[in-house]
UniProtKB/TrEMBL annotation:
<keyword id="KW-0408">Iron</keyword>
<protein>
    <recommendedName>
        <fullName>Ubiquinol-cytochrome c reductase iron-sulfur subunit</fullName>
        <ecNumber>7.1.1.8</ecNumber>
    </recommendedName>
</protein>
<dbReference type="InterPro" id="IPR017941">
    <property type="entry name" value="Rieske_2Fe-2S"/>
</dbReference>
<dbReference type="InterPro" id="IPR006311">
    <property type="entry name" value="TAT_signal"/>
</dbReference>
<dbReference type="GO" id="GO:0051537">
    <property type="term" value="F:2 iron, 2 sulfur cluster binding"/>
</dbReference>
<feature type="domain" description="Rieske">
    <location>
        <begin position="84"/>
        <end position="190"/>
    </location>
</feature>
<keyword id="KW-0472">Membrane</keyword>
<keyword id="KW-0479">Metal-binding</keyword>
<dbReference type="GO" id="GO:0005886">
    <property type="term" value="C:plasma membrane"/>
</dbReference>
<feature type="region of interest" description="Disordered">
    <location>
        <begin position="89"/>
        <end position="109"/>
    </location>
</feature>
<dbReference type="InterPro" id="IPR014349">
    <property type="entry name" value="Rieske_Fe-S_prot"/>
</dbReference>
<keyword id="KW-0001">2Fe-2S</keyword>
<dbReference type="GO" id="GO:0046872">
    <property type="term" value="F:metal ion binding"/>
</dbReference>
<dbReference type="GO" id="GO:0008121">
    <property type="term" value="F:quinol-cytochrome-c reductase activity"/>
</dbReference>
<keyword id="KW-0249">Electron transport</keyword>
<keyword id="KW-1133">Transmembrane helix</keyword>
<dbReference type="InterPro" id="IPR006317">
    <property type="entry name" value="Ubiquinol_cyt_c_Rdtase_Fe-S-su"/>
</dbReference>
Amino acid sequence: MSVEQKMDSGRRTLLLATSAVGGAAAVATAVPFVASLTPSERAKAAGAPVEVDVGKLAPGEMMTVEWRGKPVWVLRRTPEMLEALAKAEPNLSDPGSEKQQQPEYAKNQHRSIKPEFLVAVGICTHLGCSPSEKFKPGAEAGMSADWPGGFLCPCHGSMFDLAGRVYKSMPAPDNLEIPPHKYLADTTILVGDDGKA
């Protein structure tokens, strides 16, 4: 091998090594940049949409997720719970959800896209306490005999039905808020984005 050939070979080796190091540096720089594009926990709490898997939620069970620093309830209602909604209507302050506390697609008796699943902000509209679940009817829930099931605010006694609608003559002036949401799949709900904005 001539001196010229050795120099060309050395240059190729140097060029390959430099390219490899440059490529590794580019990847090392790109990974944090790409990771920064996904919402942080702080951004999620500030309002980024939250995906909720409801596939393992049994009928009658409720889970709580956080969106915009608020508790959001996802309740999988049983057929009996859905029947209780109609029974509660004569005693409700706003049974038809006339006040704008929910998107149009939740302006119905069950206040949801799918009757089976209630998605509601778990904050009382009186002074911001978080109501407790009182899903069992009557005395089973420690309530009056005619109680059909729902939520009770422990701070001042406001009562809500299983669709988050407030009963008449309660301290809470309005129904519970229904956040924007949509289904990404049969068992996946995206809270905070309904694609309408």
